[in-house]
Design goal:
The complex is a heterotrimer of chains A (174), B (154) and C (201). Chain B is α+β, with helices and mostly antiparallel strands and 154 residues long. Chain B has helices spanning 9-24, 60-69; strands at residues 35-45, 56-57, 74-85, 90-94, 99-106, 110-117, 120-128, 134-140, 146-153. Chain C has two domains: 7-98, Rna Polymerase Sigma Factor, Chain: A (Orthogonal Bundle); 111-199, Arc Repressor Mutant, subunit A (Orthogonal Bundle). Chain C has helices at 12-20, 24-46, 49-65, 76-98, 103-110, 130-143, 146-157, 162-169, 173-199. The chains are: A mainly alpha (174), B alpha+beta (154), C mainly alpha (201).
Chain lengths: 174, 154, 201
């Protein structure tokens, strides 16, 4: 059986064929032993899964599980208090964390120098810039350092503005 | 005359960051040079033979490297070109009737690679490109095959 | 002093109505009622207890925020499972960017070998208790790659059509059919293998 035929058998089982396609299959492949055996196996798998969806219990008490949700809801709904900030208060509020971030940046720079770490995938520590100018295509990129290969993988952009799932056939070994 | 350091720790951290940046920043490397590039258009498939009669299996070294990165079983080349790109120039390499790759040699041992498919730019990358490195631009094709544009810096 | 209503006797429609008016107690009853199912869905996708807990709780928080958008087109449980599945898919997408799957798993993705696997003729689940059967199915599902498990969950457990599965997984219908076929055949093969192990220890 070729690929189209096996998929037709599956689609027949799933009710995804038109009436005429289904009738054609019933008169064709489903009269063969191979076709029937495949259909039976697929049907068995479908039935077994359908009748036995996974059952797992939450491994926390009702109260504990709910308490985290409740905190999340309250936190999401909380709005920041209004306050009148003086200029110096503003600097004090932002300079301290900014300086902490600056210290982290300094440490990262030192790490880059010491360990030749290049997170965005180049051998000499400089970053690569990848653009996807096409409306139809998007891309992701990565580097296989061992092989010194930089890969850009193109895929079709999803049609909706905000895809819920942006799955790309991820066949790379890193 | 001593340098006036800020009294507070956050302020000192900020100055330390600035000092670090100044000490660790490097000028961009190297003078731009002429680069030699091997460009290939390759198909990846799990079939033993390519459907196109003019396809040849890629050389063993290329196949070995591709198999370490991707999971298709066999790789066939459709086009293979070796070319040189002079300082600060752009070379357009036609890999098929629908696929062109443009390589521009930039300062600092960087290149800009633009892939044009059916007349439309589909990908552009700017990055360092050192000897021995490969840049691979690829995507899925029908029948669970894949296409690859492979650029090797020779 | 008026006593608070006993939400445990109310149906989902009434609870949703009360929750939409701001009753956290009504929403808490909904959580208690459906938490296992939502958690189970998250666990079947993520295969990790901590992640499943986090994502299921995040789903409940999102549901509270989006409650006004629920109009009863589907059951509340179905609406909730869609939310948690989307969160799981987002999380899996992030994880995919951070680590590649094993070679074996990726060969599963690419292969066409499932077309050549002989159909399973032994009935691998005959005589099994329900709990045992569920455990076996769970064990087999854990062996599948993320993509194959996801397509099974969306199609077999959520009852989505090919088109809808393709939309959620952002792939073609052909890819859905291919993955579903592989996943089903692999499940059948795994279940048969467990049976054989049992018969020939």
């Amino acid at each position: 059986m070729n690929r189209d035929q096996v998929f037709k058998v599956q689609a027949y089982l799933d009710g995804e064929l038109t009436r005429s396609e289904a009738a054609k299959l019933e008169e064709g492949w489903l009269t063969t032993e191979a076709g029937n055996r495949l259909l039976e196996e697929l049907r068995w798998t479908k039935d077994v899964l359908g009748e036995n969806p996974p059952l797992q219990s939450v491994p926390e008490t009702r109260e504990f599980y709910w308490s985290r949700i409740e905190r999340g809801i309250i936190s999401a709904e909380a709005t920041p208090p209004r306050s009148n900030l003086l200029v110096m208060d503003f600097f004090r509020r932002w300079l301290a964390p900014a300086s902490g971030a600056a210290l982290v940046c300094l440490l990262v720079l030192l790490a880059i120098q010491l360990f030749e770490f290049s997170p965005a995938g180049t051998a000499n520590g400089q970053l690569a810039r990848v653009e996807s100018p096409s409306d139809a295509m998007d891309s992701f990129s990565f580097e296989n350092k061992a092989e010194k290969v930089f890969v850009i993988w193109l895929y079709e952009r999803p049609s909706e503005p905000k895809p819920e799932w942006n799955y790309v056939k991820d066949l790379m070994i890193q | 005359m001593s340098f006036p350091l800020p009294a507070s720790l956050p302020g000192r951290c900020f100055y330390a960051f600035l000092a670090g940046w100044v000490l660790l920043a490097r000028p961009s490397t190297a003078v731009a040079e002429e680069i030699k590039v091997e460009a290939m258009l390759v198909w990846g498939t799990n079939e033993d033979k390519s459907k196109k009669p003019d396809h040849q299996p890629v050389d063993a070294k290329t196949a070995k490297k591709l198999k370490k990165i991707f999971t298709w079983k066999n790789y066939f080349q459709e086009k293979h070109v070796v070319t040189t790109i002079a300082n600060r120039t752009t070379k357009k390499i036609e890999l098929s009737s629908e696929c062109t790759v443009e390589i521009r040699e930039l300062e600092g041992a960087q290149v800009e690679v633009q892939l044009v498919g059916k007349g439309e730019p589909v990908s552009k990358a700017t990055k360092p490109f050192t000897k021995g490195e490969w840049i691979v631009i690829g995507g899925d094709d029908r029948n669970e095959c894949a296409w690859f544009v492979i650029l090797k810096r020779l | 002093m008026a006593s608070s209503p006993d939400y445990s006797v109310k149906d989902d429609v009434q609870l949703v109505r009360a929750a939409k008016k701001g009753s956290l107690a009504a929403f808490e009853e909904l959580v208690a009622r459906h938490r296992d199912k939502i958690y189970a869905r998250a666990f079947s996708m993520m295969r990790n207890e901590d992640e499943a807990l986090d994502l299921s709780q995040e789903a409940w928080i999102k549901a509270w925020q989006r409650l006004q958008q629920f109009h009863g087109d589907s059951s509340f449980a179905t609406w909730m499972t869609r939310i948690v599945i989307n969160l799981c898919l987002d999380q899996l997408r992030k994880q995919k960017r951070q680590r590649a799957e094993s070679i074996e798993v990726m060969e599963e993705e690419v292969g066409g070998v499932e077309r050549y696997m002989a159909p399973v003729t032994v009935n691998p689940t005959k005589g099994l208790e329900k709990a045992e059967l569920r455990e076996r199915i769970d064990k087999a599902m854990a062996q599948l790659s993320v993509a194959h498990r996801t397509v099974l969950i969306l199609h077999e457990f959520e009852g989505l059509e090919y088109k809808e599965v393709a939309k959620r997984m952002n792939c073609s219908i052909g890819t859905v059919m291919s993955r579903l076929f592989y996943a089903r055949r692999r499940m059948a093969g795994l279940m048969a293998a467990y049976k054989k192990e049992e018969l020939n220890p």
